[in-house]
Design brief:
Blueprint lengths: L4 E2 L2 E5 L6 H14 L7 E6 L5 H14 L3 E7 L2 H10 L4 E5 L8 E7 L8 H11 L16 E3 L3 H13 L7 E5 L9 H7 L3 E5 L18 H9 L4 E5 L6 E4 L5 E2 L1 H15 L6 E5 L4 H9 L3 E5 L3 H11 L3 E3 L5 E3 L8 H15 L3 H4 L8 E7 L3 H4 L3 H14 L3 E7 L5 E8 L2 H18 L2
Parallel strand pairs: 3-4, 3-5, 4-7, 8-9, 8-10, 13-14, 13-15
Antiparallel strand pairs: 1-2, 2-6, 5-6, 10-11, 11-12, 15-16, 17-19, 18-19
Length: about 450
């Protein structure tokens, strides 16, 4: 990770640590870099937060000043940018979003011409330019770029999703929580076209209500809705619609781990699970691995982050991978998480098996989990402390095969994350607090 770009682009509070000047500089650099001898073609999309238009205009102004032709997709899911960049042969794509963060944050994520995350060497070049190093040659006369509002782009994306899944949802009652975000641009049209009856909540974005007590990080209102009516499935998206948390007909959550299990087992039975393997992160639940063992499905773990999941999948050509948080990637169709596509794949499994979501997860027991963040002076030094390692090892031995402990550093803050999974909430609380209190007492 560089000075500005993390694993998921540049992110920060709008007009505080993510400024309009930064957006203009990024636009200038990519406009120049991808347009050495011609007009570069750059696709820009955004979610619904208030600052999105400001950053959209800044990026477009910077890129056109360097000679690029900029296509504005408007409000759209992040995965639509990834798909359309490769499908329509853009030089690169930009998504303006801070995903599940509050409205006052925003972010700028860059995709290369293959719809994959921008290579690090280009990001480092952008960072140097943002810091005033080097120069960008601006266009003059007819070399200046232009801005085009691309109204047909999302229709191409929706058509692709429907062609990939091709199911008839007639007679299915589905509840949607659109998080007042990007999913408002695609989810209703797609599912209605496939014949579903829909009940939609949190679908009136006003610039400041994105992710507010709704969506994949706050699915409680969707759960209440599912319990109050007769619905086959409920789907909650995050702000930029690249991840999904589902809810079954009983109002129970279907996390990314549940989705990996449902789709992984279905692909295993159909013979489409490459090397019989599912990719997870270290944060996936112990219960998922136990269930995979019983189903004779193997798995590979990566560090936390959909970036690492996809890198592992791409390297080995694995079929499916994802995170507990709802990022799920289906390698044959897309190279990034896509909440709407994930919903369609769950519905496809339901249709093909004739089973309810609750029935599809009957053999999956999710162990109770507790995670506590502890502030430390130096997260890396703390995790090298021999006494702490002994405490963690002792907890691990006491849990045995009926649980696990994971202690790891935060990627962005001076925190150590202590997570325990065990058969009961009481055991989770006991063991997590034992380690947390040790860290605090030692003043690590």
């Amino acid at each position: 990770m560089g000075k500005y770009f993390g694993t998921d682009g540049v992110r920060g509070r709008a007009n505080d640590n993510l400024t309009l000047d930064m957006a203009v500089a990024i636009g200038k650099y990519i406009g120049s870099y991808f347009g050495q001898d011609r007009h570069a073609r750059i696709l820009i999309g955004k979610d619904t937060r208030l600052s999105g238009s400001m950053f959209e205009m800044g990026l477009a102004a910077g890129a056109t000043s360097a000679g690029a032709n900029v296509y504005l997709l408007g409000v759209c899911p992040t995965p639509s940018i990834s798909y359309l960049v490769q499908k329509e042969r853009f030089d690169c794509g930009v998504m303006i979003s801070a995903s599940h963060n509050p409205y006052y944050d925003n972010g700028i994520k860059l995709f290369n011409h293959e719809g994959k995350k921008m290579p690090e060497e280009i990001l480092l070049g952008i960072e140097s330019y943002m810091d005033g190093e080097g120069d960008v040659e601006l266009a003059i006369n007819d070399a200046l770029g232009s801005v085009i509002r691309w109204e047909d782009g999302l229709e191409l994306y929706i058509s692709y999703l429907k062609a990939c899944v091709d199911i008839d949802l007639s007679g299915m009652n589905i509840a949607l929580d659109l998080s007042n975000g990007s999913a408002t641009a695609t989810a209703v049209e797609t599912l209605k076209d496939l014949g579903a009856n829909l009940k939609v909540i949190h679908a009136q974005p006003d610039g400041v209500n994105i992710n507010t007590d709704c969506g994949s990080t706050h699915p409680e209102s969707l759960q209440e809705l599912m319990c109050s009516g007769h619905y086959d499935a409920g789907f909650a998206f995050d702000g930029d619609a690249d991840r999904l948390i589902a809810v079954n007909e009983n109002g129970e959550l279907i996390t990314g781990d549940h989705t990996l299990y449902i789709c992984g087992c279905h692909m295993h039975k159909n013979g489409t699970l490459k090397d019989n393997k599912v990719v997870t992160t270290v944060m996936s639940n112990l219960g998922l691995y136990r269930a995979f063992d019983r189903a004779s499905i193997s798995y590979e773990q990566t560090a936390v982050g959909d970036k690492y999941v996809y890198e592992c999948m791409e390297k080995n050509d694995y079929s499916i991978g994802g995170e507990q948080s709802g990022h799920v990637i289906f390698n044959a169709y897309e190279n990034t998480g896509d909440g709407l596509f994930t919903a369609l794949m769950l519905l496809k499994v339901m249709r093909e098996t004739g089973k309810k979501l609750s029935e599809l997860t009957e053999d999956l027991f999710i162990y109770p989990q507790l995670l506590i963040n502890v502030k430390v002076n130096d997260k890396h030094r703390a995790l090298e402390n021999e006494e702490l390692l002994e405490q963690v090892d002792l907890v691990s031995k006491e849990l045995g095969d009926e649980g696990r402990i994971l202690v790891r550093p935060s990627g962005t803050e001076p925190l150590v994350r202590v997570m325990v999974e065990a058969k009961t909430d009481e055991l989770c609380d006991l063991y997590v607090n034992r380690v947390v209190n040790f860290i605090k007492t030692k003043g690590l």
